[in-house]
Amino acid sequence: MYQLNFDLNEFLTTYWHKQPVVIKKGFVDFEDPISPDELAGLAMEEEIDSRFVTNLDGNWKAQHGPFESFDEFPDTHSQLIVQAANHWHPGLRELAQPFRVLPNWLFDDVMICLSMPNGGVGPHIDQYDVFIIQGMGKRRWRVGEKGEYKDANHDSGLRQIEGFDPIIDDVLEPGDILYIPPGFPHEGNTIDVSMSYSIGYRSPKKQELLSTLADYVLTNELGDVHFYDPNLQTRDEHGMIPTSESEALNDMLMKLINDPKIKARWLGEQLSQSRHELDIMAAEPPWQADELFQFVEDNMVLEKVSGMKALYHENDLSVIYVNGEAIELPEGCEAAARLLCDQEAFTGEDLGEMASNPALLALLLDLCNQGYWYPQA
């Protein structure tokens, strides 16, 4: 079980979205949750996003998986990267557990880097918060101030910048953590064979929110209403858009955007979607109602698919949002929102009186048969 060796609340007050910091021995006696061979195996799977970055004689190159073999890859100036490894490996899910006190709607994934000596991806800027945990080996990290930086190596497929002056220049050893807020340039260079784990938190951009809201409105055929003005008057300035009409159009648009039900459904569905493939397997054969009832009666454990987001709004526990889908809970089962969304697993005892609610059991049956929750091994 992984346990942070620092106060996360104090960290949030001092550093979150403010400044980068190195936390020495953020994990005491750190042990890698995955081996290099296991990581290489993940990079061979088609469903998993992976890439191999090399920098031989100053020539940067990025190759994308899945990979069939690593025999021809160099043992220096190279790095294997696997995204969302927590979706596919239980050890990485466990590594992310200490950070679960941070909002799940912001959590993106656990990315792993297996780096050979002098391996890295060059100087670059990310637009998300990241905790880089050093596993085996050592890596030197440099972090600069926020600012405007010129892009570099456009042909490499890597979003690099030309360089920066460091405000942090430190060597990370096993258990050390480097936190980098969005917009701070950074570069890691491997000293000896190294494993590092990036716990990433990504907030949506205004562009993304506006785009997905428009998609939601169109998909659900909302706002199919024309501008209406029964008090229109003649005017000599026929090319003018009067302020009153401009404001009326804006009011029409804002009325749609600010509709509480529309806003809640769209935001819940949008924020609960995963950016990465999930290890979801429909139950085969499907659960039968009596099987699930007995499972609950026996107080067995149902576990949520790793990396899948289940969310609810603070002021409305009647609807949960699971993997981009709004799901209405049966009447009287609002407590199930916190159970399903706040916990990674639950038992029949956790359900309490809700365990005898046929409508809730029918909902759980559907969620289990879709593969969203499954029996804990």
From TrEMBL:
Residues 91-218 form the JmjC domain. GO terms for molecular function: 2-oxoglutarate-dependent dioxygenase activity; metal ion binding. SUPFAM superfamilies: Clavaminate synthase-like. Gene3D superfamilies: 50S ribosomal protein L16 arginine hydroxylase, Chain A, Domain 2, Cupin. It comes from the Bacteria. SMART domains: JmjC. Keywords: Dioxygenase, Iron, Metal-binding, Oxidoreductase, Ribonucleoprotein, Ribosomal protein. InterPro entries: JmjC_dom, NO66-like, ROXA-like_wH. One of its GO terms (cellular component) is ribosome. It holds the Pfam family WHD_ROXA. Its cofactor is Fe(2+). This is 50S ribosomal protein L16 arginine hydroxylase. It comes from Enterovibrio norvegicus FF-454.
